Protein 1
Amino acid sequence: MALPSIGMTRLVGLLGAPDADAPAYRWLADNLRLLIADGRLPSGQALPSERRLSQALGLSRTTVTRAYSLLVDDGFLSARQGSGHVATLPLGRGRVGVGGALLPGYETSDELLDLTCAATRAPAGTAEAYAKAVQQLPSYLAGTGYATAGLPQLQALIAERYAQRGLPTDPDQILVVGGALSGVSLAVRALTRPGDPVLVESPSYPNSVEAARRSGARLSPVTVEPDGWDLDAATSTISAVRPVAAQLILDFHNPTGALMADGERERLAAALRRAGTVAIVDETMLEVELDEVVRPLPFAAHLSSTILVGSSSKSHWGGLRVGWLRVPRPLMARLLQARIADDLGAPILEQLALAELLRSRPGLHPETRTALQTSRQAMIEALPRAIPGARWTVPAGGLSLWVELPAPRSRQLAAAARDVGLLVSPGPQFAVHHGLESFVRLPYKDPPAVVTDAMRRLGSAWRNVMDSPGRPATAPLRPVVA
């Protein structure tokens, strides 16, 4: 079967003019590597023959041969009989892109499938954004390098995005931080003292809950069902507890994928307003919209005291490590003071790179959306065979399914899955105190073939659990990274 190939005219246009200051083979190898890493020359696509490319570029065939050889050695090209050279990604050297997060002290291998991390690889354009950021960096080197609130151009781009969503925002309301988790932690520390009551969801993203717990807060959970929030219980809890702050994920909730509608937001906002509670709303998953939905207004449009937390980790790439807070003006001084005691600003290079990405495409890359839709469908089709009787609600966005098992065996399932080379996160890891033993979170961020293989292994593990119901869950659980 013939492999897809890139047109010569397009490839020559993407390569641009040769760099007169670099050897021709090095220029060609570096630019092809950038195109492959950036996704503009997708993995699996055939490159022109050495002869054709040398003629098109006006270079010697020896130059092209040397450049191709370098890329083969680096893992960005593979030589295939009958197909010439094919673009590849050197994923086997570090499975951050497909296999999950690399954690010190935890085993990883090419054979191990990691479903504990709900995050995608970098979209096309990321490497190019970094290249442009590096070009801009010298103009910042004469300064101190500290930008406590963030680079002004990045603040302006983020503020503009809020305005587009129906929430007028000034750039000086934006506080750039090192990721959404850092932002949530900063907000909790700035607003609370040890012993203060803080409302949290259950299930919820475990690291955010742990951040509140480490601050000394007294956690009061409210339930999020697979199909959404129990607002009756939430309003009752808010009235009784009168929490100082409320940590919420209202946009494609992690892990359930639920999206709170405007009417529900208004009701929840009214309860928090009566209690004098400041909401800290994590919008990390906001841009991961896979099905067309009616986009609700940001929660701050319903409750003006809300701190909104955003991040580039799901919309663009986790490796950027750039997040932000939209802060009500009366709270900005407290947040800035807490920020200075923590760190003095996010890295300049990453802020410049994110600014480039936001200018070209503020939301999820269309190719990423299509890939996630395809992988989600592959999981939905394979799950009934893997775990007969399992139930789930298909989310309109987000990166995972929140699956209810036919029996409360999720920790046993995680242990059995580890035996067949699959890492999964059982429900209790997402519980505030205890419970959720009947649930498991299954991210669909990998290619369909990997998702199908993961579901096959999950099915094998589930059968082992049901054949040995008394089996203890002895394997240590891998931390939930994202």
Protein 2
Amino acid sequence: MFAVPAQGSSSRSLFPVAISYQKTTISKEWVLFTPLDVDSQQEPWMTAKNILQMADSNFHELISHLGRTHLVVKPFIVPTYNCLPKHHPLRNLLIPHFEGTVLINYGPHAILVAPGGTVDSLLASTIGADTSLTGKGTQSYLFNFNAIDFPQTLVNRGVNNSDTLPVYPYRDDGKLIWDAIYTWVNDYLSIYYANDADIVADKDLQNWGATLVSLDGGRVENFGENSQGEIKTRDYLVKAVSTIIFTGSAQHAAVNFPQKTDMMYVPAFPLARYLMPPTNIEDRESYIQGLPSLSQAQSQINTLYLLGSVHYTQLGKYRGSAFPENKELQAALTKFQENLNAATIIINKRNQSPERLMPYEFLLPENIPQSINI
């Protein structure tokens, strides 16, 4: 349980007030810890926080990161290449945002998440359970595509209201990037589709949508404006394409790069703990003794340093050959880049505000690659 301090408080950032969990997976007994449950060594509240952080780190790696970015973008890649002919406007727009994704997704399959591999040795559960969790996390998005655009995910999670949750940098900076991407996609597609009739008449586009929802294709559910994956309006296409681009660029940046800046500090972000959790507030399980061994910590540092260090390409900076020469298109792209520059100014100003306990720089445009390429 987290709380938000009342209006007028010196800080209105979330802080934890209680942690509760079942004694065992089949038990109906719950253990409750609060910040008042401490001794001279800050036990057991410190241990309870560490266990919660460990669980959240596993959720982050398996679901938020791998499941809901890498594997969500993947089904859109092959239909884009196979269904949209060369020089199709949508193909031209999407390809830069798919660069490197297939290759980097193969790497985890062959190395990171292979039995006996890095994930198997570092995370808390078995590789079989990890794979199952990742699959469910991916399905929760791919089976409900029309509800995973950035603004809607904030609503789904109940964190969209800045009055009740005033300090949330991911939400506030993410909105700036989402708006910039959405405006760019709308301006771009308006050049090629004057109205909804043009959308319906584009047989290649309709084939793309049908392939995405097909059992022999992407198997994406709740995509399109009916069960056949038909795209009937430009507004729908703009939102769908914005969701794909945002997921492959900003959303991945937001969950990938904290692995280096935050999660390399193993005592705060252990990927597993090695003692049973305390079953009551009298237990004096050692916070330190439950942490990963030095060799495990070194492996976590090495892995997360690699994953969080590569910034290849930058959002909004397309290669010169990405699009055909077109004055209207160039004007739209210039507007996109100006909106990203404006977002940079706002985010830098927010990061200097005392409302933020520390700078949040993961959604600065300069730190967002075009695609999932690491």
